[in-house]
Design a protein that fits this description.
Strand order of the largest sheet: 4-3-5-2-1-6-10-11-9
Number of helices: 8
Order of helices and strands: EHEHHEEHEHEEEEHHEHE
CATH topology: Carbamate kinase
Structural class: alpha/beta
Strand content: 15-25%
CATH class: Alpha Beta
CATH superfamily: Acetylglutamate kinase-like
Helix content: 25-40%
Distance between the termini: 29 Å
């Protein structure tokens, strides 16, 4: 099946890596994600990944409980490095050449983030995992995903979640929640829908970068999204 997008940024939440576990990383889930990434890379897609750290540490939640915000956010950034290394390990086990680039320098574990180098890796069909968010407190990994996508010239952000798109309310709590097939950036901002945070949505809107939200749990969904099939919810301009 031919692919619609050549260069893509995949945004994974840290929670997606927990599987059914209450905390941490489920190796089986990481292996499944790695296999799906391999399938699309084998078709010639240039893929970059940004992973959250909420399965290990959430800076905003710790801040709400009294921890100083900047310190809490730096701890959250380190959690994303753990997740990035776990995904790199699973990818390299199945012969997918991978590089982790960190916004916070840690030479023994990852390359420093250098835009030109990241683009060169992608051109060589290496998967690039961007760790440590933007390297700055007060910015989420959603914003990091939008920023990195723009910097590498990605054609789309695909956001993997636990549900099959964007709903008007939480479908886990509300059985009557309505799913949207398409939304505009303005819709998302005005309705306060939890696609990505407002800064990330505004960045995508300003640069006309579409976002596709889909269910990671369904095998083969990454390939379906990138082949242009109607999966999940598409967020774009008017």
């Amino acid at each position: 099946m031919p692919v619609k997008y050549k260069r893509v940024l995949l945004k994974l939440s840290g929670e997606a890596l927990m599987g059914s576990e209450p905390y941490g990383i489920d190796p089986l889930v990481v292996e499944q994600v790695a296999r799906e990434i391999k399938q699309v890379v084998d078709k010639g897609v240039e893929l970059a990944v940004v992973i959250g750290g909420g399965n290990i540490f959430r800076g905003l939640a710790a801040s709400a409980k009294g921890m100083e915000r900047a310190s809490a956010d730096y701890m959250g950034m380190l959690a994303t490095v753990l997740n990035s290394l776990a995904l790199q390990n699973s990818l390299e086990k199945i012969d997918v050449v991978t590089r982790v680039q960190s916004a916070i320098e840690m030479k023994e574990l990852a390359e420093p983030y250098i835009r030109r180098k990241a683009v060169r890796h992608l051109e060589k069909k290496r998967v690039v995992i961007f760790a440590a968010g933007t390297g700055n407190p007060y910015f989420t990994t959603d914003t990091a995903a939008a920023l990195r996508a723009m910097e590498i010239g990605a054609q789309v952000i695909i956001k993997a979640t636990k549900v099959d798109g964007v709903y008007d309310s939480d479908p886990v709590k509300n059985k009557n929640a309505v799913k949207f097939d398409e939304l505009t950036y303005i819709d998302v901002l005005q309705r306060g829908l939890k696609v990505m945070d407002a800064t990330a949505i505004s960045l995508c809107m300003d640069n006309k970068l579409p976002i596709i939200v889909f269910n990671l749990k369904k095998a083969g969904n990454i390939g379906k999204v990138l082949s242009g099939k109607k999966v999940g919810t598409l967020v774009r301009g008017n």
